[in-house]
Amino acid sequence: MAFSLFRLARFIRSIFVPTASIVAFSCLLTFIFVLYQPTPGPGSIQKLGWQSWDVVSEGSSLASGGYAESVEAGSTGSESGSVPEGVDWWNVTATETVDTASLPLDVWDPLMQHDTGLSEIHITDCMVDPWFVPSVAADFCFPSSTKEDDATKGKWVRVERNLKEQLSLKSLNVYYRRTRRHDIPLITELRVLPDKETPSPFSHAWKRVAYPVSPRGDKRYLWYKAEKTWREMTEAERKNSLVTEIDVLFGSDQPWYGFEKVDQAVYDGMRNIEPVWLTYRKGIKPPPRAPPLHFSRDGRFKVMQVADLHYSVSVGSCRDTVISPCTASDNLTNTLLGHVLDIEKPDMVVFTGDQLNGQGYTWDGRSVLAKFAKAVTERGIPWAAIFGNHDDEDGMTREAQIKYMQGLPYSLVEEGPKDVHGVGNYVLKVKSADPSKTHLLTLYFLDSGSYYTGVWDWWGIFHPTEYDYLRQNQIDWFLQESSSIDAIERPFIPDGAKDLGGIWARQNGQVVPGERRLAKPNALMFFHIPMQESYSAADVNPATGLPLDVGQHDLEESGAAKKQDGFFHKGLLQALESDHRAGGRATEVKVVANGHCHVTENCRRVKGVWLCFGGGGSYSGYGKIGFDRRFRIYDISDYGETIRTYKRTEHDDIVDDMILAGRAAPPPYEGTA
């Protein structure tokens, strides 16, 4: 067919009209929904904004449930030297002022100490878990609302805990509104009741959430009581009766600190499915802070190492024990731990990794973190922790675990620098009890990681093949921290000024200094996975000709990583207690404490450094019949000069009591690094 300009023009004309119409309509929609931004008129300033202060306040801007709350911090408030007469310096704490009015109202975080109340609760069953697709969930899963309700009652906030976590790919979430207004009734009571039951005594203030709160089985409904407004409540009711946060607990153990369980579980559990509870907090309940670490007046400081608890969301299953019947191993371990704490009365507890069991048993890490340190926090003992290879296996990141551990009572846990490998590389210092507050003992904590390599199978399951190890930037960080520590005159003598009376008189049996020297304080170091040097040949005691290796170590294979960056030689052996030539080659770190290997509990000295294992103390972790559960104690005396260690077993036996440093310790290492 011959080419024709007429036919081409007719074709173009035939498609021009529909094409132009589509383009014009698209431009119109773009203008209306994207480009067109109408200027608010003068009437807009009269509308209620999102929790607008100028509408709801009654005078002071901090009077509406948002006031400056003083929370005790762990740091001493006596840095300026103003310590009241007769008061120990570590008991004078600074106050950290938290302006609760600045806390966001539309963010769920159970660690935030809100004093504002909740006005309404809703429950939504959604086809998709909002955690996976938050943008979709905002449209399809959140309860409906209006601008007026958002302004008066508060925006909907999702409690980021899926009640159907164990049961379905769908989600069942609790939502609430939080408000600062004074004229909205606020929630003071929560109850979970079966269908067709009502709270007793019943009043018009009780409201039932329309959708069942039970994830499976018989229907149970959540009731809440919202009777009084903020204005109508007394100060005592605002502090003690006002519900300020809602959370969810999986399992049968205790809820998060400051929270209480609703009187009935939303799901009772069955076989391998754990119970589910709603929990709530009333008022503000900040966790108590640990006081600064310090020696006693007679120069003593005791550390108890707790290794490899392996707690689960459930109550745990007993492993490798002659106890029969043995049930609820987590609870049994907690009882044993409490018993040893009551006998030893340590000044500090260190959890050396694998607090969480991992391996699919800690699918809700927060429920496990709520209970693992219970025996310690109930006794008001300061504690620190490091991570093991199992702690983050089931999805909860180490950064998130640090955040929640810092929200527990008496915690000394720190995240450490972000540019160093791992999470939880930090230093704690133990000071003298006299007014000089001299740094007498250093405690190093490092993250030895989890797994260096592994393979993924067809089912998406990771199978580790090699353990992780301490990296070069951790070596650099340790050497930098060590170099920043000032030398002190050792052995230390406390301030004996006459104006202090006789409280600092030297006690019988203490070190009487012969030749004093300038040197860094002794140090202990804690990390989970041992180094290869823990299995190297031990130093020989020149006085006896015997290897310096005390304790059991041949009951299992090596737990060390196959790869390493040389932390022992490039780090530990290079950080000396004194830079002076006359100080010799004595290392600053006298003891390295590891976990990881449950039936290994020896202390072996290698090139002057003691490498010690804690031994398993939990019935929830693997063990060996005939090998008692045990906890290692480090008893430091003489103001940090003498380091003694031993293990206390489940039968209260003291095993391998020995001196690692100080008087009566083996002769110092004379070889080369």
From TrEMBL:
Short name of one Pfam family: Metallophos
Entry GO terms, CC: cytoplasm
Superkingdom of source: Eukaryota
Annotated InterPro entries: Calcineurin-like_PHP, Metallo-depent_PP-like
Domain Calcineurin-like phosphoesterase: 301-461
GO molecular function, one term: phosphoprotein phosphatase activity
Keyword Heme among UniProt keywords: no
Keywords, ordered alphabetically: Membrane, Transmembrane, Transmembrane helix
Positions of transmembrane segments: 12-36
SUPFAM superfamilies: Metallo-dependent phosphatases (SSF56300)
UniProt keyword annotation of Transmembrane present: yes
Name of the protein: Metallo-dependent phosphatase
Gene source species: Lentinus brumalis
